Amino acid sequence: MTNRYVLLTRLPLLQGVSSTELLNWEDVLRLDIDEFPASRLPLIKQGDNCSHLLYLVEGELEREHRSEDGRYATRSSINGPAIIEVDRLFGLKPTYQYTYRAKTEVKMLGIRKSLVNSHLMKSEVFRLNLLNSLSAQAQKRTAALLPCQLDSAEERLRHLLSTLFPDQEGQADISIMMKDLAKYTGDTRLTISQILNRWDADGSIRLGRGHFTIHDLNALVG
């Protein structure tokens, strides 16, 4: 049994699938792992058609989302092994929500959507893994969007950030003008500025012109 198949069985959604079963799929699925160097050129662009089940096998990707109104952009990182937006593979709008760039040398694996339907979905283990993954994502996002009584501007700002980064952790960056951030929370520009400057002073964020970096999402909004 090759190391490659041992690696594949450890990937999200493939955990529990036997290497023998993967070996039987090899000719059809073309389980080839592609390598890409670190680059600022996007590997995937926001709005691209989600035509493949994509895996980040190894390495680190930067992901960026720009709002439709152009008022903000969020950036964070994803480390392998990980699956890329499996919730966008089917549904009403099967397009990527993020633009992805290689922060380090990365290894990627792609399986065409048609082959997911014709082969992977026949595996009970794969179907259960997929259902659990989609259910977990839906529950996290629903929890982030549930109505809640927020008594202070700081609570409203934390809640906004939790909706922008519902399933992410670690460091993240958001580019937005202070006036726009105030509109999203329903507070004044001065109030939001005071909160961000206080967070900057206590080390929770690094405040810049037109953007700020959150050092630890879980610590700030978890």
Please give a structural write-up.
The chain has 222 residues and is an alpha+beta fold. The chain folds into two domains: 3-126, Jelly Rolls; 153-221, Arc Repressor Mutant, subunit A (Orthogonal Bundle), CATH 1.10.10. Helices cover 37% and strands 25% of the residues. The chain is built from eight helices and eleven strands. It has a seven-stranded antiparallel β-sheet with strand order 2-7-4-5-9-11-10. A hairpin with a 2-residue loop joins strand 10 (205-208) and strand 11. Helix 6 (178-185) packs across helix 7. The longest helix has 22 residues, at 124-145. The protein is elongated. The termini are far apart. The mean pLDDT is 90.
- Tally the helices: what do you get? 8
In CATH, the architecture of the largest domain is: Sandwich
Task: Look at the helices and sheets and give the structural class.
Answer: alpha+beta
CATH C-level name of the largest domain? Mainly Beta
General shape: elongated
Strand order of the largest sheet: 2-7-4-5-9-11-10
How many domain regions? 2
Biggest pleated sheet: 7 strands, antiparallel
Runs with pLDDT <50, length 5+? Answer: none
Rg, Å, rounded: 20 Å
